[in-house]
Amino acid sequence: MGDVHNMELKSRRHTVSDLAGAIELCYTNGWTDGLPVIPPTAERITAMLEAGGLDPETQLAFIENRQVTVTAEKVAINAVMAGCKAEYMPVVAAAVEALGDPKYGYHGPATSTGGSAVFMVVNGPIARELDINCDNNLFGPGWRANATIGRAVRLVMRNVMGTMPGELDRSSLGHGGKYSYCIAENEAESPWPPFHTTRGFSKAQNAVTIFAAYAPHQYSNGLSATPEGILTTACAHMKISAGSARQPQYAMVFAGEHSATIKKAGWTREDVQRHVFENSKVSVAEFKRLNMKAGAPTPEDERTMSPIVESPQDLLVFSAGGRAGVQSAFIPGWGGMAGSQSVTVEIRRP
User: Fold this and answer.
1) Which of 80, 86, 142, 344 has its CA 20 to 30 Å from the CA of residue 94?
2) Could you tell me the pLDDT band of residue 2, with boundaries at 50, 70 and 90?
3) 14 pairs with which residues across the strands?
4) CA torsion sign, 84 to 85 to 89 to 90?
């Protein structure tokens, strides 16, 4: 069949006789996530690099705690293995660049027993050009771009950064997002400007936001015809959730009728952030009663209210998902802001 590149610091080649042998070679060497991969031949890797306008030795990220340099060639190899089309490479490269940002703090979420995944949201014209799903079955299977872009980032983490389950990845449970956790924002029907404009980018620019996140928590509300009613349900679910006592960032994804209701009422993204910030506070005493903070509750604890995030801006608000239905979701972050923050990086194309 030809040459298959491996994952060592300087790429080597393995010669195999057929496709089945190439796939099994990747399994034998531990280069897969448990699913079959596309053999990374020289031709496929070159096509990936050309689509990204990248030299093979270009450094896309440096992971401080691992002292690992992540080159464009290594990212291209893993993007091929994940099943990406060549035109997906700029998105994968930008997401990997974001992983190296000190604000993301790669070592913490990647090694923690907490089991976070890299949640990615793509904004800008490229999301529509690449057909990145922002609609029905948002977090589910069926979309090549979503599945393979997210998978490529996880394979880079595994094969280049050494984030191997049971070794440097110590997740107690993990979740399905560790295979792939990539969506686009539904900019066309959103009540708000595209999310990346809140990070200093223009609507015409392309960007990806990454976030160390737990699994989506879905909630339903088919009774309320106002934003306040919908957000009352959201806040009730968010008050006692995976990360609420640690004040991580949270993503909030509004779909279906909820998004339409908020849009009709004219609520801005900032209105949503302020309302949830003020109405999802929990007393320190309640956290202690639920064994989410140490110590016995005191009278002062009963009066001391703790917001679930440090500031309203730590609620990352998006519109995405099917246009029908009365379901939305929130996604808790892995840890406190000192441990990991969401990062947005421009997607650059040649």
Assistant:
1) 142
2) very low
3) 4
4) negative
Asked if residue 243 lies in contact with residue 112, where contact means CB atoms within 8 angstroms, the answer is no
Sequence-distant (≥ 6) Cβ neighbours of residue 141 within 8 angstroms: 147
Render pLDDT for 23-58 as a digit per residue (tens, 0 to 9). 999 999 999 999 999 999 999 999 999 999 999 999
> Are residues 91 and 149 in contact, defined by beta-carbon separation less than 8 angstroms?
yes
Encode 133-155: b = buried (16+ Cβ within 10 Å), e = exposed.
bbbeebbeeebebbbbbbbbbbb
Q: What is the pLDDT of residues 94-121, one digit of tens each?
A: 999 999 999 999 999 999 999 999 999 9
Q: List all residues 6 or more positions away from 266 whose beta carbon is below 8 Å from its beta carbon.
A: none
- What residues are paired with 332 via a beta bridge? 250
Element (H, E) at 213: strand 207-213
**End-to-end CA gap in the chain:** 31
Rounded Cα distance between 277 and 122, Å, is 25
Question: Which residue matches tokens 């002062």?
Answer: 300
- Scan for tokens 């034998």, then name that residue: 28
Query: Letter for the amino acid at 130?
Result: L
CA distance 45 to 78: 9
